[in-house]
Amino acid sequence: MTTNLLQRITYNPDVCHGKPCIRGLRYPVELILELLSSGMTIGEILADYEDLEREDILAALQFAVRLSQVKSIYKIAS
Predict the structure, then answer these.
(1) What's the predicted TM-score (pTM) here?
(2) CA dihedral (59, 64, 67, 71) positive or negative
C-alpha cells in the first residue's frame, strides 16, 4: 500500500518549480500538509479540491513520514 501511495507523488521541473506534487497536478505536497496542519479534515480538503482523492492526501502524509525518517541531523555552520 505504501508504494502505491508514494507513486501518486510526482516531480516535474515544469510543474510547481519541480516541487513534489500530487499526480502531476498543481497541488504541491506542502500545500496538503499545510491544510492538514491548519486543522482541516480530509473531508474538508476533498470538498474544497474536487480533483483530489483520499489516497492523494494519504500519499502526502506518507511522503512526509518518509522525509522525517532520517538517521542523523547535523547542524551546518553558519
Answers:
(1) 0.84
(2) negative
Helix H or strand E encompassing 18 = none
Structural contact between residues 66 and 58, judged by C-beta atoms closer than 8 angstroms = no
Helices of type H across the chain:
2-6, 29-37, 42-48, 54-68
Q: Tell me: the pLDDT tens digits for 22-54?
A: 999 999 999 999 999 999 999 999 999 999 999
Strand partners, 76: none
Q: Where are the domains of the chain?
A: 2-68
Q: Per CATH, is 2-68 categorized as 3.90.660.10? A: no
